[in-house]
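G., before I forget:
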Amino acid sequence: MMARMASRQAMWAVAREEWRSLLRSRAALSAVVVTLLLTLTATLVGFEHRHAIESERSRFQSLADRQWHDQPDRHPHRVSHYGHYVFRPLSPLAFFDFGVDPFTGHTLYLEGHRQNSANFGDAGQSSVLLRFGLLTPAFVLQTLVPLLIGFLAFGSIARERERGQLRFSIAQGISGRTLLAGKLLAHALVAGLLALPAFAGMAYLSLTAAATAPAALFMLAGYALYLLMWSCAAVGISACASRARDALILFTGLWIVMVILIPRLVPDLASHRITLPTRIETDVAIRKDLAAIGDSHDPEDPYFRNFREQTLARYGVKKVEDLPVNYGGLLMAEGERLTSELFARYMQDNFRRQQEQSRWVHAFSPLSPAIAVRRMSAALAGSDRDSHARFLQDAEQYRYALIQALNRMHAEQVRYHNDKEQRIGQHNWQALPRFSPPAHPFAAILQAHVLPSLAVLAGWLAALLLAVMLLGKRLERKAT
Amino acid sequence: MPTTLAPEGAALAARALEVSYQAVPVLRGVDLRVERGEIYALLGGNGAGKSTMINAFLGFVNPSSGSVHVCGHDVAKAPLPARAQLAYVPENVALYEHLSARENIDYFMRLAGMPMTDTAGIERALDAVGLDDNSRGRRLGGFSKGMRQKVAIALALARRTPVLLLDEPNTGLDPQATSELNGLLKQLRGQDIAIFMVTHDLLSAAEVADRIGFLSRGRIVEEFSAAGPERFDVRNLYRNYAGHAFPQGAAWSHPA
């Protein structure tokens, strides 16, 4: 009991001494202050950016809704071509990690017969999605803080070894593990300090929007594991190296491979391996398929001639003029169904390929924890590729329901004769529901992205902690 | 001649100690025993194995065979309890430059698991080694080697360990600092502390040591004591030292 207390006191003494040494080093202190300011700036900019987008979204959504509402009495087909804007709502945690948003945007224009072209955009490419360099709290914590941890900790053991201080310290009777634990504690807490503004932002959100709390907690846990892992790596490398210079070179090499090289190369390999058609290729293919379906405006088109025959038979009449509903509306609805099915098929194929690319990239996360933390971070911030894909799918479902509702109005409220000259009252589309995408269950996000990423990070941390413990034992014998 | 002694009861004991580095034997069957209240000086030329002997007591090398004990603790099996019994003053005292003498002692006391509850203990230790008041609060960056050594010995005093290991304590010290150090070592011997020093400085060793051992090619080839039938004098010692540590005909200036 006494020995454990003495060991704990010695560990804190080592940590305090490490902090004192950092505080007395002008270079270290400046680097910490600059990074801290950077995290703070990124957090404030993130909040401001999200607030600006949300305000804009809210303003434009109400403007779009008002314009939609205020359309004068008109033909429902004109209403369907008037179109409607929908905006993707941002999660409160989007301030932390913009994810794919800067590449994919938040706005969609919905119109009859046409699926939004964003569904086939190149922004979903895995190689694009991992190329982030925006000043966000996530970028600072994922990329810059690990580097700074290395710069601050590379000499923690190796420099003392060079100066003979390590040998002198061990000769006082402190165990190697206690010494390393003290160094680790010091650098982990410095890393925590550097992340503090971002974590404080998350805590503030959790207090003001309780629904955000679970995601914020997981985010905090993931980044804590990630930064602790890098602290372990830096102290461990310092304990291995015989010279501080070697430790710095080794750490920088590791950082380049794990944070820059693998996360940059793997998505490129994924894009190369699982190719995604470009928007132009998709447009050409869709046009070709549309032409194959038929032309609803051509009375002799075989498919639509057959559709007309079936419709007449169903209503028991001989001519479209005798139908109790407007055949033009039915034709529009059928055309919409066919084109939407075609668009959906292409969209699903596109999403499937994107998911395959993502799976391929994520398979490399055991090699690069930066991939794991990025995956977790964007998923929890609601700014990952999946969130964007869900928005596109929800918007497409809404568009289809909206256009078919207008086609139904066309069929039921507009007479066949002199069709184009008629109008229906604006209350018809005013009564249609607004776009309101359902919230994705948090458990599904956890299962799909967060837990696998946390498992990778925890695995790395466990392996590094084990290595540090073994190195601690070795240090007692090899302090020179 | 070296004798094989039981380690029990001795402050420091090496028995049939053999140490090899990459299959090259460095210590070959060393038997050595230092009692409390005794100063033992181990002399030897470069590469004789003196530093390895210190490393063996500190637990930084594993014996190929034989054993090393510090106050009854087998260093190979229990290095931490063994280290807790000894204070070590390296040749180049590796204290923290950015800390003052007081801060250094306070820090290393904490590492030793003996945090000082008041500063009086530190001041007493610094008083004992004669470090002047003005220097105590200054960072070590501007300290001379002698002053650093005083701080390291003050740490040893503050830790109240029964054993003190000194690695080449006189190297780089001026005559006054050497004399002060010798006086201090004699004081510590009076406090029942066992002192083991490895050194090249024959004169200092002859001045303070109760026993002197000559290490050559990993073996203690001769041992002399300040009293009794094996009593040494500087002339004999020098003859032995030069004969064992240096090849015949090598340059060697006789001490005045």
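The first strand of chain A starts at residue 84 and ends at 87. Chain A has one domain: 2-475.

More on Monday.
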